[in-house]
Amino acid sequence: MRAILESITVKNFMGVEEFHANFDTVENTIEAANGVGKTTTLVHAPSWCMFGTDGYGNSKFDLKPLERSNDITGEFGKRIEGLETFVEVTYDIDGLKVIFKKEAIDEYSGQDEAGNKILKGLKYKYYIDGFEVKATEYKAKIDAMFDVSKFPMLSQTSHFMLLHWEKQREFLMQMTPDVTDKKTFDKLMQTEQKSKFEFLAPFIKKNIAMSDVKKRAKSEEEKAVIERDKTTPAIVENTRNIVSLDFKKIAAEMASYEADLAILKEAETNPAILAEANNSERAEIEKQINSLNDSLFNIKNTITKEVNGVIQAKINEKERRGNDLMLLKTKIEGTESKIAEKKKELSETETAIEKRKEEYANVKAKVFDAGSPKCSHGFHACAALKEKFENDKFSLAEAFEKGRDAELAIINDAGKRLHDKKSLLKSEISLLENTLEGYKFDLTTLTEQYNSFGELVPSVINFNEWPSVNDCQKLIDEKVASLSKFQTAPSVDNSKIKELEEKITNCKIELSKEQKNTELKARVKELEKDKLKYSDEVAMHRRQIIAIDEFVAIQMKDVEQAVNALFTNIKFKLFEKNGVGNIENKCIAMLDGVPYSVASYSQKIVMGLDFIKTASAFLNMYYPVSIDNRESITVIPKMDTQIFNLKVNPERKQVTLC
After folding, report:
1. CATH topology of domain 3-146+623-657
2. What's the gap between Cα 253 and its chain centre?
3. What angle is formed at CA 150 by the lines to CA 148 and CA 153, rounded to 5 degrees?
4. In the chain, which residues have pLDDT < 50?
């Protein structure tokens, strides 16, 4: 379907008082100053006449002219009543000529106390080919000839580009050749990535959507994570119940206790055995005392080395802090010197600014004197004005004024540069002063740290302050004290027999835990195996999810390429990865990598026309296209539709067909 706008008549519609034009079937140029009504005439008026909305699809707008309440600011007040308002358009639809006319008439409901009519609202009249018809018949005729949902995007270069990206994407996907999961899968099976995607085969065969496959993989992953995470507290609990005992040592100790008990039992009837045991025990204790004395000597020797090393390290640290202090003081002196230099330069700049102000005032005060040579000099100093003087023959007084203005501009420019320099110097001084303040703060901190070291000299070590020395000495004293029992004749100690029997009983209780430990360790091993199994399942499902995302990304790239292949200049970015790596639907129109939102007027026109040309061919709907800001581009792409170039021309105070 091809529609050609042959003519339009607009009267008292929005800001257009009256306009009529017959149009060329190929290309037309409309010129007017900004705000006069180019868009109103060629976009809003036809849209309202046919669809009851403005060119942007809004049904509520001021279609009647408004009173200008302020000629200076351009503000408008209430609308003007009683004006005849209508729009009439003549279209050629595939060779069939049809005339649509819509009229808006003020409707009143009685009078107020002052006798003025009370405006109720608007009523509308509809005409087709000069005959009045009902609104339903009018709408039915238009709906049969025009697609109201497609007309704006196919007739305005910016309409589609300003739609919400989801609506843009929905329309573009309708234009895309069919790209199925099976086609993408079959293509991947011919690549080196075949093994990565083979698990998708049964889902492809059953025609299950990739989104559902991903949901299933995520669900399986979550189940595996739950099972894996259950094993961790179970492992911890069973591990906690495992007693940390050296069962071999306990068995050896019990054997020793049993041997000592046997000796004591036998000594009750044979005292010689007890004496021999006492001598053996005394010799063992004396051996332990000697070993502990050797250990005490080694501990004291190690402490001495450590203390001397710490003192030397502190001496080195103090020396380093001293060097840092000297360096910081040098920085402070250098910064203070720079601040002084900048302040001096700032003072000189401020003096220069005052001189420029005086110079500006002196030049400003100059008055033209036809008899003064300076007037002639002031004129001839401006070469451009000299040429204009010779061509246009304007007066010496005017030349003098132009020369003086040029000189004032030079002085003013010099003053601006001085002010910029002044601002820069102030910023530099402020930055240096902040730096200096930081240096001084660091100096205070560093000085306190340096002084905190005090005098560092090796001192006499008080070993009693060292726990390791005290612990070792305590053991020695206990062993020495235990020798006192050998000063009396040996005898069987019944309390000792009872103590050994209790120790043997305790050892048996501890050894009984070995079997429980074995069972708990076996359970922990089993749980760790389950944890590894579920961890492998989690990893497998995550690999599948990543593969599904890659599959979708590859498929989406194919879709994007298929869409972009339809257009000559414009490219659409239909997909994008978010911050967590998931693919999100997008629709960003670009020209040479520049998004529509930041493109120039000329780029936006090229993008809009490219879309309209392709979409018109796809839908087989060719509507007249209005190109706003047409003056911003020299050459436009060749189009298959009727073109209306809307150009800004400040000289034209009314909408004009050129």
Report:
1. Rossmann fold (3.40.50)
2. 69
3. 120
4. 373-383, 385, 389, 393
